Amino acid sequence: MAQNIVIVGGGPAGVVLFNEFGSKLSASEASVIMVTPRPYFTWLPACPRMLVTEDGELEKRVLMPFPDNFNEGNRKVVLSKVVSIHDGEEKAQRFVTLDNGETIEFSVLILAPGSKWDGPLGFPESKEEDLEFIKKWRKEFAEAKDIVLIGGGAVGVELAGELVDEWPTKPVTLVHGHPLLLTATYPDKFRQDVVDRLIRRGVNLVLGDYVDDIIPKDGKITTRKGTDVPADLVISTRGGKPNTEFIRTLGSDVLDDGGYIRVRETLQLVDHPRIFAAGNAIDIPEGRHAYKAARQALIVAKNTVALVRGSDDPKTLWQYRGGRNSITLSIGKDGGACYFDVLWGLMFGDYFASLKKSRGLMIDMVKRRLQL
Description:
Layout: E1 3-8, H1 12-24, E2 30-36, E3 40-42, H2 47-52, H3 59-62, E4 63-65, E5 75-79, E6 82-87, E7 94-98, E8 103-105, E9 108-111, E10 115-116, H4 127-143, E11 147-150, H5 154-166, E12 172-176, H6 188-201, E13 204-207, E14 220-222, E15 228-230, E16 233-236, E17 241-242, E18 268-269, E19 272-277, H7 290-308, E20 327-330, E21 336-340, E22 346-348, H8 350-358, H9 363-369
Parallel strand pairs: 1-2, 1-9, 2-5, 9-19, 11-12, 11-16, 12-13
Antiparallel strand pairs: 3-4, 6-7, 7-8, 10-17, 14-15, 18-19, 20-21, 21-22
Helix pairs in contact: 1-7
């Protein structure tokens, strides 16, 4: 009798897993169910540009509908949200509960819930609402006179680049709590290079300082150090938080203090050998990128196939060893910066970044690789 493999999340990890099982497991071995609230995949790295400009109608390409074959053979997409998980000793005691009250039994459960975002990346959960959300942000950006972004990670850097690309004379300020942009995951030399590139593009930087109250008063905000920054639109571009509140139903020890899922090297949850996790919500100390999520998903896929086929000896399962931390940032349509953690650390600028990401935002490559 076919076993149920349930995947929670339709992001990079979830879709990679869905495709892997469709090609590696027969209908007699497993039924594959992906639970996600949206009937489409959203390519987040392209969203800063999509939210700033109408050019190219990017919403038609960035919101990628799941194809019909996602509901054929041994695969099915369930449009819903998981609100709780029960993991018992017997098969009938393993199930997830959906927000409509229905339950789905699982033999293997894979958690790939991704992140929750504030501000422009905090998308709703329907196509109609998403399109209105996109229009709203485009209007706010267009009408704003002084824009301030709070948080100088990849989202803040790329959104600042898109804003000055679209409106070169509009004041855009980026406030970041550290002396250099991004995080210490990357070397100072690269982080300083990103600082220099934004300054050359006309972005105002306030580094090593914080903003506690992001609501403008009298046309400005004031940092902790007392710096007044002109502002009529202030946006949080801090990193996303793990979308894991529903996983607490497994027990208080499944998440760390930051809300990330505790996993073993096999990407199994501690004390839950038939539950795996992958993507931005796991507690592995490395950069959280779509390509990392996809690599983790491939390890989870191999281990899930092994469990389905009766090989549950931990010694036979694959282990995720992490990888090098590389990043490509787009800074407008023709600019950017790249860092590759190989040799002595390779850095590239506008030309390479524009070829790799900035011009096309990797949309066609992602659609092809995810079979969308």
